[in-house]
Specification:
Two copies of one chain form a homodimer.
Chain A: H1 8-15, H2 19-27, H3 34-47, H4 54-61, E1 66-71, H5 75-78, H6 82-95, E2 101-106, H7 116-120, E3 125-129, H8 136-144, E4 149-152, E5 162-165, H9 167-181, E6 186-190, E7 200-201, H10 204-208, H11 213-225, E8 231-233, H12 239-250, E9 259-262, H13 265-277, E10 287-289, E11 306-308, H14 311-326, E12 334-336, E13 339-341
Parallel strand pairs in A: 1-2, 1-3, 3-4, 4-5, 5-12, 6-8, 6-9, 9-10
Antiparallel strand pairs in A: 7-8, 11-13
Helix pairs in contact in A: 1-2, 1-3, 6-14, 9-11, 12-13
Chain A binds a DNA duplex (16 and 16 nucleotides) through helix 2 and helix 4.
DNA sequence: TTGTAAGCGTTATCAT
DNA sequence: ATGATAACGCTTACAA
């Protein structure tokens, strides 16, 4: 009973048709008479054949139906970010029409040689998430293979299509909002400045070599309005990291800003907690802004004043770009806009 | 310049060796003299050949190096759960040694025909996450193809290896802990009872047809100690869902339990918020227990009394099981144990 | 509507 | 250490 698996040729033979006909029955690419189709299906059932082997099909077709999604962090950490989760949903939706699956690839995690999985994996295209300079090797490997690439929130060179956000302008809007409320003394909580960075104040030197585009651009946005706003870098985009930053920023009662601009909603949530710890009432004693416009689980009753970004749309756009590239179309880079959303965490500064 | 991609045959010819030798240079499966290796590598570089085509290799090898991970929810929703995220990390680690990637598959999401992606995807094995009866078709499709399957937290029949948790016993431990503290009046917040379920009290009728194993088993664990504990089903494992449930449970001051057992840490976090809303002090006025032992972002300064489950280990075990099955080894089901962890959210009932 | 035939690019086996 | 050969299982022009 240890006979090998039936192939489409076996099915064809049993059904008394040619292999090509049997193939067509399964792919549906060409009309087949009902009678033959039924005979083929019956033969398949009899032999326990459950459709073409995807490996063989993909060799012949030159397509595997798989899109690689490349992260620079452990999966669990990446998915901590609600924006990434929404993006994945959009991506999954967008590639569903071509029946593609998403293959998770981690780059630069201990134990994986650079680009190895990228060259061994049968992917038709790749989406790089948050492309920093460290991804250069991965990128080179992909190009060498002629695999279409799209980058989300990052820069991979002129000829790689990007899906980005108006980070600087968006953050500037929030800063302007605070200024129009009368705030003059604000502080910033930034996202990590490097792939792995310690928490701490950002001096001019550190500022110079921020390698994470999003972080730099959003910081620039604040500085457009408040050129001297002090900034504290968090180690991650999380509530806990925001709490740490918030504590640092609110530590000295003599030198306390009247508003904090956090570079993500999660960080903002952490700042809110830090404020609570200090006995500060938001927004009366302190205004706090976020960024992303995601549902932060457990944030109620606060509604953050924030910039809502179309995270799912970004994923969808990346997916659509990939689909287009597989169809040999040129695809342009796209930059999405965030929209200002006022919540109940901002107000004029105390005593105004 | 639109010439087709170089193949290993081209490289071999250029290097003046046979295709098999060239192949071996890349796979390293057989010793090759340094001289020839270098010639092959040079030829490859000259032709812009960057290694064997994974599609062809996987046909020949009969392996694609891809493990499917099957979810029953939109990706974004699944990854909301910290336990799932940890599990993914463990899974990724465990399959890394065989250089396998993880292919995300969603089952039963609008637009995907049942089992379609499972039969089209070139996967060597599959991990079903949270296998409910609704996954029967997916399972059948996999078996028909002879693809090894492992199930995490679910039941797929006797001959499918499972990775599970001692849910009932673990939950019973927490209930016992509360009883030993003197609580007699407790309520439960459960995980969803069905794949999609509305929030609400669980009456005997609803109790009967809970299709989610985890939910049922943990509820059984409480009822082992408190046979009449009322239970309120949440719609998801999230802080917000826990908040809703907590509000319902704490609504009536006359009928207020002195302790709430939540079936996940996230739900427990929500209950904590509900308690705060009502002006109740935890643990003085109300004890709250969680389940999972994960870091709930933003939960500080609380430390939940909970059962810590080895989530990463579960993922790793599933990955190792898959690797073993691919090596034609039999693998047993494994059931992990949770360990009791006391935090600062439980105490004797008020006035005792 | 169905059949014929020619690969898709690689690797395992077996000689040499 | 290297080479010749034969699959791996399928799809798709093209012909009938």
């Amino acid at each position: 009973m240890s006979t090998r698996r039936a192939t489409i040729a076996d099915v064809a033979r049993t059904a008394g048709v040619s292999p090509s006909t049997a193939s067509v029955v399964f792919s549906g690419k060409t009309p087949v008479s009902d009678a033959t189709r039924q005979r083929v299906l019956d033969a398949a059932a009899a032999l326990g054949y459950s459709g073409p082997d995807p490996r063989a099909a993909s060799l012949r077709r030159g397509r595997s139906g798989i899109v690689g999604v490349v992260f620079q962090a452990p999966l669990g950490a990446a998915f901590l970010d609600p924006v990434i989760r929404l993006m994945m949903d959009g991506l999954a939706d967008a590639v569903a029409p071509i029946d593609a699956g998403l293959l998770l690839l981690r780059e630069g995690v201990a134990g994986d040689s650079p680009g190895a999985s990228l060259t061994t994996a049968p992917i038709d295209a790749a989406v790089l998430v948050g492309c920093t300079p460290g991804m250069a090797e991965s990128l080179a490997a992909l190009r060498a293979r002629g695999i279409p690439v799209v980058v989300i929130e990052g820069d991979a060179g002129a000829d790689v299509p990007r899906v980005t956000l108006d980070n600087r302008e968006a953050q500037r809007s929030l800063a302007s909002h605070l200024r129009s409320l009368g705030h003059t003394d604000v502080a910033v909580v930034t996202l990590p400045t490097h792939r792995r960075s310690d928490p701490g104040w950002i001096d001019e030197r550190r500022r110079q070599d921020i390698t994470v585009d999003v972080t730099r651009h959003r910081l620039d946005g604040v500085r457009d309005v408040y050129p001297d706003a002090p900034a504290y870098a968090a180690t991650a985009s999380s509530i806990d990291a925001g709490l740490v930053a918030g504590r640092a920023i609110l530590a000295d009662p003599q030198h306390r800003p009247t508003a904090v601009l956090a570079q993500s909603d999660l960080l903002a949530a952490g700042v809110l907690r830090a404020a609570e710890e200090r006995g500060l009432v938001v927004p009366d004693d302190l205004s706090v802004t976020g960024f992303d416009g995601v549902d932060v689980d457990g944030l109620a009753p606060y509604r953050l004043t924030t910039m809502a970004q179309p995270a799912t749309e970004k994923g969808r756009a990346a997916g659509e770009a990939v689909v287009a590239m597989l169809g040999h179309h040129d695809v342009p880079s796209v930059c999405f806009s965030s929209v200002f959303r006022e919540g109940n965490t901002t107000a004029p500064p105390p005593g105004s």
